[in-house]
Amino acid sequence: MHSVAILVLDRVVPFDMAAPMQVFDWTRLPDGRRPYRVRLCAETPEVPVDGGLTLRVDRGLEALADADTVIVPGRAEGAPPLSPAVLAALRGAAEAGTRIASVCVGAFVLAEAGLLDGLRATTHWAAAEQLAAAHPLVEVQPDVLYVDNGQILTSAGAAAALDLCLHMIRRDLGSVVAANAARMSVMPLEREGGQAQFIVHEHPPVPRGSDLEPVLDWIEDNLAHEVTLAAMAARAGMSERTFSRRFREQTGTTPLQWLLRARVRRAQYLLENSDHTVERIAQQAGFGSPTAFRERFRKVVGTTPHAYRSAFHGRRTAPAAHP
User: Fold this and answer.
1) Is the distance from CB of 152 to CB of 116 less than 8 angstroms?
2) Does 214 have pLDDT greater than 90?
């Protein structure tokens, strides 16, 4: 039987912990046997969890030493620093060859233990920049569901943790067992790790008080129309070269990249809040054609307009033609 130890840390997010518990506990072999034994472990017998609850745990950090897989859930914001004992236990498990996986911002725990140095990793997209800044030796990939480095694995949000667990089950026991576990969890088995997270891009920054502010406001007001670099520069009263240099200095990106993000943000808003067809949204956001819209939206957001609408639009929408 494969032993799975879920490490419960102070202020752990309950759903981050429950998701892997459920999928492994529900896994069955063709003859009905349970292939996994799931145990909670912690540094102390009682652990405060997010939401004001306290969890009693019957196994200590020694459980990491005899586990085949260790899963580290995410912790809520404001959680206390990790203890040296926890970090040492994780490092010891890694040195012994134990498979170690993280859920959501649990990647920060693995990174602090030094287990992600030189490796690719992911976390929730909203925390990806923070992870990259805090741990520059980690190659953060913010737009995937999970990353499998062999021994060390990381996942995005709690839902992506289910994808990662099903991936590990498939790796351990094959597709038939994993497919049955997916059905029990009411999850699709076919979502691969490289499928993008649904990233909500913030509105492109407008540096208030800068001499570029009027032209940036003009760009936003004219997204549905053709906006060229020459037109932007003329609006700002500069040469294209000077305008491009000043733009990068004040916004951190190029004029055309800023324009693309503004159009994508407009399209995201319309997909979330309107019943307009993809063709109409492509026109309103200034993409020129539905084909160009689909291609550029997928490149920036990581998914199709149709999939984005299905995930974020809470009511029945008008049909989109071949999104």
Assistant:
1) yes
2) no
The rounded distance, in Å, linking the Cα atoms of 281 and 268 is 9
DSSP letter string, 70-101: EEE--B-TTPPPPPHHHHHHHHHHHHTT-EEE
Judge if 169 and 238 occupy the same domain. Answer: no
Which CATH number do you get for residue 285?
1.10.10.60
Point out which residues pair with 46 in neighbouring strands: 56
Q: Are residues 158 and 220 in the same domain?
A: no
d(CA 297, CA 133): 27
- Together in a domain, 172 and 70: yes
Q: Residue 17 pLDDT > 80, yes or no?
A: no
Task: Catalogue the long-range contacts made by 186-189 (C-beta closer than 8 Å, 24 or more residues apart).
Answer: 187/23, 187/162, 187/163
- Residue 159: CB atoms within 10 A of its CB come to 15
Which candidate, 109, 111, 110, 146, places its Cα nearest to that of 125?
A: 146
Cβ-proximal residues to 174 (8 Å cutoff; 6+ apart), any chain:
none
Task: Write down the mean pLDDT value for the chain.
Answer: 83
Domain range spanning residue 226? 213-312
What digits encode the pLDDT tens for the residues 267-322? 988 887 888 999 999 999 999 899 999 998 888 777 788 877 876 544 333 333 33
Q: What percent of the chain has pLDDT over 90?
A: 39
The domain tally of the chain equals 2
Q: Are 70 and 92 in contact (CB under 8 A)?
A: no
What separation in angstroms does the CA of 175 have from each of 62, 153, 189? 32, 19, 9
Q: What is the pLDDT of residue 315?
A: 37
